[in-house]
Amino acid sequence: MKALSNIGLIGLAVMGENLVLNMESKGFQVSVFNRSTEKVDNFMNGRAKGKNIKGTHSLEELVQSLERPRKVMLMIKAGSAVDASIDSLIPLLEPGDIIIDGGNTHFPDTDRRTAYVESKGLLYIGTGVSGGEEGALLGPSIMPGGSPDAWPIIKPIFQGISAKVEDGTPCCDWVGENGAGHFVKMVHNGIEYGDMQLINEAITL
């Protein structure tokens, strides 16, 4: 195991766990943290056992385990928990470090958070992650937006773990500044659920 991890991930629910395992399978070392640290221990003694994954029991320990510029990805419920996590992380990070929100956040919140995090000298990415549990593990579609300077730093990881089309093109590219990533994810979800409704109604008829 390398001394420092390539990326940290907070939130070991189904999507978070599977993304971590995906990253590790593509050659990245990942540090993990969960607010209820019992989940960290269960993960480390279960699906993560023997893998290039570091379990941590505090945000301080998580941040200290990361290479610079640090990349910390939140896979937690959209809303106030994201703001609370950002406020907890900012004092622990240094200029140029990156906070990434991978949840289904409403894009105006990502606009606001990008401005706030940048005002502290840090970089911010709000990204859509699509494909559910299976996609997170085997290759999701990823829609990042936010601070443009963060993209070249996170690009190798995001494009490395994303789904690929037949010619090898990754299902991940930069979509724009501020809340653009979460805006695209919102539109994507609207089309997806509209399609599912259409299929259901056609079968019913």
* Sequence stretches where pLDDT stays below 50 over 5 or more residues: none
Assess the beta-strand content as a share of residues: 15-25%
* CATH superfamily placement: NAD(P)-binding Rossmann-like Domain
From the helix content, strand content and strand pairing, which structural class follows?
alpha/beta
Q: Can you tell me the number of structural domains? A: 1
Under CATH, the topology can be stated as: Rossmann fold
Number of helices: 8
GO molecular function, one term: phosphogluconate dehydrogenase (decarboxylating) activity
Pathway: Carbohydrate degradation; pentose phosphate pathway
Pfam family, one: NAD_binding_2
Protein name: 6-phosphogluconate dehydrogenase, decarboxylating
Keywords:
gluconate utilization, 8-stranded mixed sheet, 205 residues, Rossmann fold, alpha/beta, 8 helices, phosphogluconate dehydrogenase (decarboxylating) activity
Brief overview, please?
With 205 residues, the protein is α/β, with parallel strands linked by helices.
Helices and strands in order:
Elements: E1 7-10, H1 14-25, E2 30-33, H2 37-45, E3 53-55, H3 59-64, E4 71-74, H4 80-89, E5 98-101, H5 107-119, E6 123-130, H6 132-138, E7 141-146, H7 151-161, E8 176-177, H8 180-204
Helix pairs in contact: 1-6
InterPro entries: 6-PGluconate_DH-like_C_sf, 6PGD_dom2, 6PGDH_C, 6PGDH_NADP-bd, NAD(P)-bd_dom_sf, Pgluconate_DH
Domain 6-phosphogluconate dehydrogenase NADP-binding: 6-172
GO molecular function, one term: phosphogluconate dehydrogenase (decarboxylating) activity
